[in-house]
């Protein structure tokens, strides 16, 4: 199935694409309908999903133009416009279906499949026949011999389902799933009534009363042309019942898996888009108070996109508030900035922000940026309380901090097995108490070198604190503590993490020594000991200043005696330069007489080691100085 989706709201479009991607061979997302005809010709798509409110040209006009140029692929409108006039316009323009935002994603998929299936049927055949019964698809007529049957749309569709695959047994769910283009979707009971009525009309024109057979425990099918096969059906009925029961269990499990996958997509989409949603809210506030040059159409489109996006990810109240703002913007133009309207719309935007961000927005302290300027920090939150995820996202606004969330112990185990996190925030009180928390803490204990553990729990009892103290946790906090206190503990853990572990990045060091054989051996020793170093060596001491500027080392190892320029002179030059003096300098020498040591100290050296003891002393000294330099 090849799908093209035209949606100007990139957040919502990406969510739809991510949900449908496993159900389709190809799905392309575009944010404008301009030149859509060329895209359709290039892609040979099975269905076009089209938003109504698009920039430059709306979906109704696009659909009308496509139909005028004989583009007959199915077109499904998705829109937050739900009044009768908009629906009529959509269908008059040539739409095949119309789905109102926010919608259920499983319903979207079912409608897409129904439209694609119907189109394939129309292309594949002109008439459907069974015995002497003929369905003339182009005329929407059914006749038996010379008699025409007068069927309701639902009866016609049910008969079409049977005639399309006459050998198949359909249960009620199978049939209902294919009735999406009927105005009123029947329930199981009403479906039986429709089938009973259809049977009567078939019998009235001379067909067998069991033309549509009931196979108890399985469903319905057309009566086989060869009655001898009935005995085989009866013999196999028991295994078939088991087959359909197992199939139903598989279907139910598949539905659960799809729902879980959708929930994960929604959670991830909200985490990724909270910041730009907040920015859009501010943009609307600035517009209504004349603080930006936003056009009315762009303001309406922004809040219109909120209606579909927020509603579809579960923020129904926020979606309804957005709809109210949209109506006010539309109905009061060009007087939208009258004082009365400014007050109404401003209050609604603040209500919307409160609904989306109940904890408000905490400005990130720029002083903390130094903690994160080297690399991205990965934090995992393991907690059933999904509100905590929203609160943390809004509180921690540092782009260098990546927050992940899981709301069950099982998913937490999967997360931790797949990836290493710098900090894990763990709740120890769960609705379904089990020994699974044990396994999480055991798993985290195995990762104590890479991962810091912070307990942030409702259970502040002495028993729980003693229980957690058996594991290598870094802090135990009650949820009575504010997010500010939690954040300070996260930063403390990160500082400890970075100061104790420098293996996450490679450090540039510069070795200056004229003895090429010795530096070659030293380099091999450093590599064998797996120190996290980029090792640079120069033997011409007079070039050291140019090399330092080029390499920007974080540590320098010097020999004392060298031709042209000795180590003491180099050290003095480095320590007198304000831009270089913080770089640690270690002397490696075979002469550690007391007068030489005094010269090292006077030159400003940070350390000195005998060449005979490098295997014992050099490696830990290097790590110690690098840690100090980084801090």
Largest sheet: 5 strands, parallel
Proportion of residues in β-strands: 15-25%
Instruction: Let me know the number of strands.
Output: 21
* Strand order across the largest sheet: 2-1-3-4-5
Spans of at least 5 consecutive residues whose pLDDT stays below 50 are: 227-238, 361-367, 499-504
Mean pLDDT: 81
DSSP summary: helix tally: 23
Which helices and strands occur, and which strands form pairs?
Layout: E1 2-6, H1 10-20, E2 26-30, H2 36-43, E3 47-51, H3 59-68, E4 75-79, H4 84-92, E5 97-100, H5 105-124, E6 127-130, E7 133-136, E8 141-144, E9 147-149, H6 153-164, H7 172-177, H8 188-204, E10 212-215, E11 219-222, H9 229-288, H10 296-312, H11 316-331, H12 339-356, H13 369-372, E12 377-382, H14 386-395, E13 401-406, H15 409-418, E14 423-426, H16 436-446, E15 452-457, H17 462-469, E16 475-478, H18 483-500, E17 507-512, H19 516-528, E18 533-538, H20 544-551, E19 555-559, H21 567-576, E20 585-589, H22 594-603, E21 607-610, H23 614-630
Parallel strand pairs: 1-2, 1-3, 3-4, 4-5, 12-13, 12-14, 14-15, 15-16, 17-18, 17-19, 19-20, 20-21
Antiparallel strand pairs: 6-7, 7-8, 8-9, 10-11
């Amino acid at each position: 199935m090849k799908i093209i989706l035209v949606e100007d709201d990139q957040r919502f479009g990406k969510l739809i694409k991510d949900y449908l991607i496993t159900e389709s061979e190809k799905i392309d997302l575009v944010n404008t309908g301009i030149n859509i005809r060329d895209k359709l010709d290039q892609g040979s798509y099975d269905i076009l999903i089209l938003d109504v409110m698009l920039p430059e040209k709306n979906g109704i006009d696009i659909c009308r133009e496509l139909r005028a140029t004989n583009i007959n692929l199915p077109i499904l409108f998705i829109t937050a416009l739900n009044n009768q006039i908009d629906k009529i316009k959509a269908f008059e323009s040539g739409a095949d279906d119309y789905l109102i935002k926010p919608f259920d994603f499983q319903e979207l998929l079912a409608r897409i499949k129904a439209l694609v299936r119907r189109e394939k049927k129309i292309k594949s055949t002109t008439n459907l026949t069974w015995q002497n019964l003929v369905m003339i698809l182009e005329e929407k007529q059914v006749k038996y011999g010379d008699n025409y049957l007068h069927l309701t749309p639902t009866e016609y569709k049910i008969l079409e389902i049977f005639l399309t695959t006459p050998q198949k047994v359909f249960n009620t769910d199978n049939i209902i799933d294919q009735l999406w283009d009927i105005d009123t979707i029947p329930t199981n009971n009403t479906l039986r009534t429709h089938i009973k009525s259809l049977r009567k009309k078939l019998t009235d024109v001379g067909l067998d009363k069991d033309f549509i057979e009931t196979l108890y425990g399985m469903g319905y099918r057309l009566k086989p042309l060869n009655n001898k096969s009935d005995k085989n059906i009866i013999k196999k009925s028991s295994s078939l019942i088991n087959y359909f029961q197992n199939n139903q269990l598989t279907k139910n499990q598949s539905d659960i898996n799809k729902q879980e996958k959708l929930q994960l997509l929604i959670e991830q989409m909200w985490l990724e888009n909270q910041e730009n949603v907040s920015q859009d809210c501010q943009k609307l506030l600035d517009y209504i108070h004349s603080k930006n040059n936003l056009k009315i159409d762009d303001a309406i489109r922004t809040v219109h996109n909120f209606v579909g996006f927020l509603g579809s990810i579960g923020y129904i109240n926020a979606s309804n508030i957005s709809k109210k703002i949209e109506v006010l913007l539309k109905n009061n133009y060009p007087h939208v900035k009258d004082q009365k309207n400014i007050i109404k719309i401003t209050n609604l935007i603040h209500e919307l922000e409160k609904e989306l961000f109940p904890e408000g927005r905490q400005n990130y302290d720029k002083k903390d940026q130094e903690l994160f300027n080297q690399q991205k920090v990965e934090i995992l939150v393991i907690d059933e309380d999904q509100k905590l995820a929203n609160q943390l996202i809004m509180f921690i606004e540092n782009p260098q901090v990546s927050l992940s969330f899981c709301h069950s112990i099982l998913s937490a185990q999967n997360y931790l097995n797949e990836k290493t996190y710098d900090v894990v925030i763990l709740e120890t009180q769960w609705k379904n108490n089990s020994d699974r928390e044990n396994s999480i803490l055991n798993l985290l204990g195995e990762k104590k070198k890479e991962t810091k553990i912070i307990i942030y729990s409702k259970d502040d009892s002495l028993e729980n604190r003693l229980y957690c103290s058996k594991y290598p946790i870094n802090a135990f906090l009650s949820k009575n503590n504010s997010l500010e206190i939690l954040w300070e503990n996260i930063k403390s853990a990160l500082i400890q993490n970075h100061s104790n572990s420098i293996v996450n990045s490679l450090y540039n060091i510069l070795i200056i020594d004229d003895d090429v054989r010795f530096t070659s051996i030293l380099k091999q020793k450093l590599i064998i000991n797996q120190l996290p170093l980029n090792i640079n060596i120069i033997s011409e001491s007079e070039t050291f200043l140019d090399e330092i500027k080029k390499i920007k080392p974080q540590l320098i190892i010097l020999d004392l005696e060298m031709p042209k320029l000795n180590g003491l002179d180099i050290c003095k030059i480095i320590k007198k330069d304000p831009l270089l003096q913080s770089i640690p300098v270690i002397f490696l020498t075979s002469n550690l007489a007391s007068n030489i040591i005094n010269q090292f100290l006077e030159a400003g050296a940070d350390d000195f080691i005998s060449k005979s003891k490098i295997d014992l002393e050099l490696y830990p000294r290097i790590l110690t100085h690098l840690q100090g330099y980084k801090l």
